[in-house]
Amino acid sequence: MQTQCTQTSFGFHPLGRRQVVGRFDGGDLSSDGGGLLLREVEQRTGIVRQLAACFVDYREGQLVEHTVEELVGQRVFGLALGYEDLNDHDQLRSDPLWAVLVGKPDPSGESRRRTADCGKALAGKSTLNRLELTPAKATAEDRYKKIVMNPEAIDRLLVDVFLQAHREAPSEIVLDLDATDDPLHGNQEGRFFHGYYRAYCYLPLYIFCGEFLLCARLRPSNLDASAGALEELERIVGQIRAAWPDVPIVMRADSGFCREAILAWCEQHGVGYVIGLAKNRRLRRIVGQAMHQAKQQWNQTGQSARVFASFDYCTRKSWSRQRRVVGKAEVLEKGENPRFVVTSLAEELWPAQRLYEELYCGRGEMENRIKEQQLHLFADRTSTAFLRSNQLRLYFSAVAYLLLQALRRLGLAGTEMARAQCQTMRLKLLKIGAHIRITVRKVWVSWAGGYPYARLFAQVYAHLQRAPALRC
Description:
There is one protein chain. This protein is an alpha+beta fold. It has 16 helices and 19 strands. The protein has a domain of 204 residues. The longest helix is centred in the last third of the chain and has 24 residues.
């Protein structure tokens, strides 16, 4: 018979003549005391509440202990606070601070129906797993999985959060499109080998506007990088123009999105574009004179040299018309480095060098946002068997990002962490040791006395108190 470990204390190296003994007997302690800031953000933005409204709940009401909003909140707050696995929630469900975050009326969990659940206010991994694995055609007749995601509603929500964050229409909107790899290590639905990334993966499509995530679409990797991008553009641009009909919109992307259908649609619907163009022999010949000038500058200075050229160009077969192309003739220590972009923007407003260096290269910031999603908010945790449930996990990651982005926008503006990434915010503001004490009238949260960022925490709290609440 296998024995169980009964060790309740841990002896560490002594401190002088004093023994150092550790025990898991501190009571209601939490390592996520700063999560209350995220709850304040949610109270003002309603992001999680709006996400919960994108589900249809077919469960019998009298038997429900965890509402959809509580389940969704538990999953989103978990990702924001660094818990990527559902298994983590079997321990987190006993943390009363987490019950406060998701809005449980009984944070101690003493009123649970089953005796085995008493003291555990939140849902466990199995309940959250059923939420993620509910099929699209589930009904009230199904036995377990009855909470159905509406993906179209979630797609609209991502754009709505962007619209709600602005009291007035921006002077211009720049939409950044990009595809990235999501490596897979199982036999998930839609799994294919991608030659460029040299791995089995998904190929998700992201669309950002500045720091705002507008689209996170999970796709199989046996598709062109631009597959589905036009449909997403039509949807997002239509939703934005319904709110702000006169705001200029510009679309940026790399050469993987340089397709005739996308270029023609942008031209027909008044959307500007700046898109990378793959180099070829014809383009190299056209910028030959500019490249010669760059070589001369390199020979004279020994420093990297750039010369820009703007010209009209049309492909031999794929394009329907001539378009403006900006070429960068660059010479580096390693040799020539020509680059090209095609654009609908006039040269009078955007001269060649400024268009390339300021506007087109500005899309590099989007790659930092994708890294935040992939590395800090676990957008690559697509390990379920089905594409639909993996898409839901990507949605949860996207909303967790929007929640942290709102914390950065509303709480950290004007502080030394105004441009902090999600991981930095999590480590310095959210992962705070706290003692929780629940009374009849109050929930007392006592943070660690040695917390080094107490002044910054107070600033963020004050900023959030002044932030206006969303009116729906």
